[in-house]
Amino acid sequence: MKIGILTFNWAINYGAVLQMFALYSYLKNNNNEVYILNYIPYELAKGYRSKILEKPLNIKSITKKAYKN
């Protein structure tokens, strides 16, 4: 049987990934064809994005931030 798991496992903690892996392993052991569909809605994903890499880095900005701290 073909089974698709629709999940949002791109979270800050590992609980979502572990839950998805446990369900995947259980279904796979019962001779099923299992696919994982990682659902990432924009509104939820923008809260998980790293603020550090949003702007391009250059030596001048890094030096300024290091000097301030």
Briefly characterize the structure.
The protein is an alpha+beta fold and 69 residues long.
What attributes characterize this protein structure?
single chain; 69 residues; alpha+beta; two-stranded parallel ribbon; 2 strands
Summarize the structure in words.
The protein is 42% helix and 17% strand. The protein is built from three helices and two strands, in the order E-H-E-H-H. It has helices at residues 15-29, 42-45, 59-68, and strands spanning 2-7, 33-38. The protein has a two-stranded parallel sheet. The mean pLDDT is 77.
Chart the SSEs and their pairings:
Blueprint lengths: L1 E6 L7 H15 L3 E6 L3 H4 L13 H10 L1
Parallel strand pairs: 1-2
Count of runs of 4 or more consecutive helical residues: 3
Low-confidence stretches: none
Major sheet strand order: 1-2
Query: So what's the overall shape?
Result: elongated
Number of strands: 2
The main pleated sheet reads as: 2 strands, parallel
Number of domains: 1
Order of helices and strands: EHEHH
Note the gap between the termini: 57 Å
Task: Provide the β-strand percentage band.
Answer: 15-25%
Specify the helix fraction band.
40-55%
Radius of gyration: 19 Å
Q: Which class best fits the helix and strand makeup?
A: alpha+beta
Integer average pLDDT: 77
